[in-house]
Amino acid sequence: MKTFKRIVKKLREEKKSIATMESCTGGAVANAITNIEGASDVYSYSAITYSNSFKIKMGVSKEIIDTYTVYSKETAREMAHAITTFSGAELGVGITGKLNRIDKNNPYGEDNVVFVAIYDKTKDKYWERQVQAKEGSRKKNKEFVIQEIIEILEENVL
After folding, report:
1. What is the CATH number of the domain that holds 133?
2. Disulfide-capable partner of 44 in 16, 17, 40, 132 (CB 3.0 to 4.6 Å)?
3. 98: pLDDT confidence band, cut at 50, 70 and 90?
4. In the β-sheet with 91-97, what is the strand arrangement from edge to edge?
């Protein structure tokens, strides 16, 4: 299983930082990053925004959520961008989706689909991925999403 070790090392070398706004992963990405020695040099901020109202308070456009739903690539992009603005980090990770549950407050969107967006403020560029959660437990699905995020970062940042 891959870790954020190479990514943290590269960000430290380049004096760049990363921040996350997570919904369905509930801080699992933040935890995976901060498990790496030296992460405090590159990890700016983490927000867990389960509710739409807190996504909006953190800078996600209500119009984007209303137009595309909270479970969309557009919302993940807004989350990634908003967290870079809020934290001042060069890289922002936005994650939204459903993992093994039906959301009574947001009864739309496909079950077990997670949208990941990574925003590079320096390049003004996004990398996105739609992840089909396929493991039996929420914990295993979170680990699967983390592996996808590491893969995106390794392909585009390293």
Report:
1. 3.90.950.20
2. 17
3. confident
4. 43-48, 18-22, 91-97, 113-120, 125-132
DSSP, res 32? H
Q: What's the number of domains the chain is made of? A: 1
Structure tokens at 18: 């990363």
Task: End-to-end CA distance of the chain: give it in Å, rounded.
Answer: 18
Angle of helix 138-156 relative to helix 5-14, nearest 10 degrees, comes to 40
**Is 59 strand, coil or helix?**
coil
3-state secondary structure 70-102: CCCHHHHHHHHHHHHHHHCCCEEEEEEECCCCC
- Structural contact between residues 49 and 23, judged by C-beta atoms closer than 8 angstroms: yes
H or E, element range at 119: strand 113-120
pLDDT digits over 8-66, tens only?
999 999 999 999 999 999 999 999 999 999 999 999 999 999 899 999 999 999 999 99
**Full domain range(s) for residue 137:** 5-156
With the C-alpha atoms ordered 34, 36, 37, 43, is the resulting torsion angle positive or negative?
negative
